[in-house]
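BUG: 3D viewer hangs when loading the predicted structure for this chain

Environment: internal workstation, default settings.
Expected: structure renders.
Actual: progress bar stalls at 90%.

Input used:
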Amino acid sequence: MDFSIINISLGELCGLGAIVFLVVVQSIYSLRRKFCLSNWLKRKRFSPDDVAEQPPVSVVVFANRENGEGLKECVHAIMNQCYSEFEVIVVNADSASYVDDAVTLLTMEFPGLRFTFIPDTNCNVSLRKLSTMLGVKAAKHDIVVFIDADSRPASPYWLASMTRHFDDYCGVVVGFTAVDNGCDTDFGHRYRAFDVALENSQYLASAIRGNAYRGNRCNMAYRKSLFFKNKGFSETMNLKYGDDDLFVAELARLSDVTAEISPESIVVSKPIDYRMTYEFGKYHRYFTQSKLRPAAESWSVVMSLVRVPYLLAVTAALAWAVWCAVGGDYVRAAIIGGSALVLYIAEQLIYIFAQRRIASILSCKKLFLSIPIFRFVRPYINFGYKARASHVDNYTWQ
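Structure tokens produced before the viewer hung:
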């Protein structure tokens, strides 16, 4: 029986209605994070004139054999910060000789530079966490900012922008680290740029909404008193990683956590082998986050599952339109097929717009036509990382 006005049955109308509903749901999810970051920038745009006071800060630089070659550039960028009172502490995590040599030259240039190291005899311990503990204990000031030796602040107002949030309520500030485009030219570099922007926008937006579950160890700050109140990494000392996700989740129970995403706060990372750093980072991140199960990750999985019936519905509508056209019903074919195709293209364009805006905010590479492809394959690639995450060296006793 025909329930339609232009020879469209009730079942066909319901099918198109389902596609419309799924398009709206996915578009809202895509735009929600974009609007969250954009609105934050509008409300809290950084200006040096707006900073009433600059609390004294200790900057801890993590250096080892893998990133130590960038130490000189990193320290110079920190020392050139427009900030009233701060100290810099370099932690040599694995007693790399060229890190020692670099520090010797840097102390001649900057007499106030401080230095500590971890002896080679240490084993069965997380060097990252031990370095953090040494840096925090050596810090003279309550606010401690962390950065890696192969990273550098993109602005002389990095410290000012990162520390402007600390008050009686906020004890943790999580920032963002962008990757220097020249460091990633290997196969898959465009996908990695897409994935990094998407993944980091999730934890930053969650922190802005008050549901912090992760930070970035290359650009993060918290109070020394809060570190000791939490008894450091006592709950996760058996893990090599988790110092910027499990630990941030612990601190979120004790204090407010906020995000800082102004252009002045961004740190640029220049790893020697970014592809390897990216892959191992994915493995360790999925292993530690399996113990957190943050809401942002859960929603990401849900939306990936929603796309399955959505793509099936669009495919079915297009196939049915072809069938109608073969049967000579060109009007019905044009209405059903055209509607499904327009809705699909509109949803893709909304997603592309949202991702390009997010990439712009986070100073990441802006993509266009490759975004729909990467969006489709990302759940399968991430599933591969998750499946292999438990087989990577994650425990200190391995």
